[in-house]
Structure formats: structure tokens, C-alpha cells
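Risk register update: the risk of archive-format incompatibility is retired. Evidence:
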Amino acid sequence: MKIDRRSFAIYAITKHGIHIAQRLLKNLNDADLYVSEKLRAGVPEGTVSRPLPLPMGPFLAETFTAYDCHIFIISVGAVVRMIAPLIKDKKVDPAVICLDDDARFAICVLSGHVGRGNAFTSRVAQAVDAQPVITTASDVRGTLTVDILGRDLGWELDDPDRNVTRGCAAVVNAAPVAFVQESGEPDWWPQDKPLPEGVTYATSLDQVDPVRFEMLLVATDRNFYNTHPDHWKTAVIYRPKSLVLGLGCDKDAAPDMVERGVMSLLATHGLSLKSVKAIATIDKKKDEPAFLALAERYRWPMHIFPAEELDVVPGIENPSETVKRYVGSRGVAEPAALLVAGAHKLLLPKQSYTEPAAGRSMTLAVARIPFPKRKTEGVK
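Archived output:
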């Protein structure tokens, strides 16, 4: 049986469970209700249900990865035994929630953070007026959720398997932790709420002595392995979407050459591909195959500007009258990046790239999106 990916699966095996499921369906969009054949006749008219074969184990093997969240109106013990063979990794496992047959408690059983189980549990509890039961230490203590910090802002962990568990433990235990924010939105923690116990805030790695802290949580678009090796050792690294790539190229430049050029220039200048938010160029290049291929492959929006708009952008560091004669603007990559980022200064001025026998070249400039700084005090 093939099921298109959906948000919620609800499983009911008792009469009370069916009534609870009805309440859930009224409050949760994109949900499927599964009811055992014996009880389907008792499903109220107007409530759509799907057959639930018993025993459930083999059926769950088919549905487990088809939903973001599974809601069982079944005892925790029974559910744990059924899902145990299906659990693989917290990065891919769906959320699992159990409700008792009186809807008194909504219990998050699996994937509280990465799978959004804790957030789903709160929604489920609110829908049926139950008590949410969440046991993840960082949520219970109201501190930073290291493994999903900034996720709602589009941030990405540079390496989900590196230092994350250590970072979680340090934060939960209120050990000395520095949050270093070199880029990205300031709302990773409520602006009007004090930072958790043990957490210190800084805006640059250069402000932080790594010896003083058990762990560093670093939001940056820079690769600092070579520049700050001592910081890197104990860092959990977040990649905000903070970079805009301005692009130019000769007509019909090979897409694979342009892609290699982007990768090479970013790596050479210590910038992370994971922090790229968008690409930008002149309208004359809106149909350039290399740029369209980049946008599609990396799911980057491509912004297009007319020459007259690019030509008057302040901050062009490498104006060219030759370029203006051909395209009508003194620059392409530099002003396009500045416009989309809303920046006044380039992070990386125009760089050129080509390859032997390519017969074509490309240019790249990078601008960093300016974000307001948090009002929190820096390192003392």
C-alpha cells in the first residue's frame, strides 16, 4: 500500500478512542483516521476512516514513514513494542504520541525534537484538553534545544552528528556555554527573555576564549576550521541562510563549470554553501542555462534585475566600463548581490573563475544579509 506523505495518522481501537479521534480530526488538518474493522461500523456518519488491520505490527511497517506524526489512542507499552522494530534514527523517525482512552494525557514517545514530537504533543493535548507529557530535558527546563536551534528560522546544522549530544548535555547541565552569533536572525531565543543559566552571548569568535567554555554554539556562514581550530573542536555549528550570491558569466557557460566555480570560490574564501539563501543576476541572464541549473539543483530562488537598476547601486567595488558597454551596467554580480541582501558593503567582491579549455568564465560576488543584533550583553 502506497500512502503519500501526510502530517498525522490517528489509530483508534476502542469506542472511546473513536470519539477522541473525532475531536482530534476537528483540530488537526491533514490527518487520516485508522479504525479496526470490528469498530468501523460505529464510526459516526460524516467521519472518514480507513481500515486498521489487526495485529497492527505489519501494517505499521507500511505507514510508519508515510506520516510526520503518529497518534495512538493506545497504551504506551503496547505502542513501544509495536514501533520498536521500526525505529532507525532520530534524523528520520517520525513523531509518536500516545493518548490514554480517557484523553487525560498526551505523551510524547518518540522524536520530540528533530521530529517535532514535542510541538505536536502540545497541539494534540490542546485539541482534546489533555495534559501534555514531555520528558525532553531541554524543553522541561526551558533551555536551549541544541539539536533544532534556529530550525524555524531556516538554520541548518553543519554536521548533525558532530558535538550535538555534548552540546545538549552541556546546556541541560548549565555548564559554561557560549552562543556565538556571527550571522543570522536574532530571534533564536526570545528577545525579552534572559538567556538560560550558563549561556553567554557573543557576536564574534574573536571575543571568546574557548578554554573558558565547555561548548560553543556558533551561528555563522564562515568555515573556521583553519582560522579558529581551538574553537572548532568544541563547536556545534549552525548555518543561517545569510549569503546572497551575485553571478555573471559568458553566454552559454557550461553549467558544471559554473557550479564548480561557485563551490571553489566559496571554499577558497571560507564561506559555507549551506548558508546560501539566493542567487542574483541581470535580466539579460534570466535564461542562462548554468544559472537555471544552479537554482533548480540547490533550490535557490533567482532574483533578476534590469541593467539600469544595477548600474546605480552604491557599493560596487569593481566597476567596469567594458561590462557596461555589453550589458548596460558597470557591474552585474556585485550590485545584484547587494540588492538582494539589502547590504551596503560586499562580503566578497567580484571573483572570476574559469578552467583550462573551457572557453568561458564566470564571476561571483557575495553579500551577507544584515541582521539586527540581539540586545543581550556580550562576553564579560
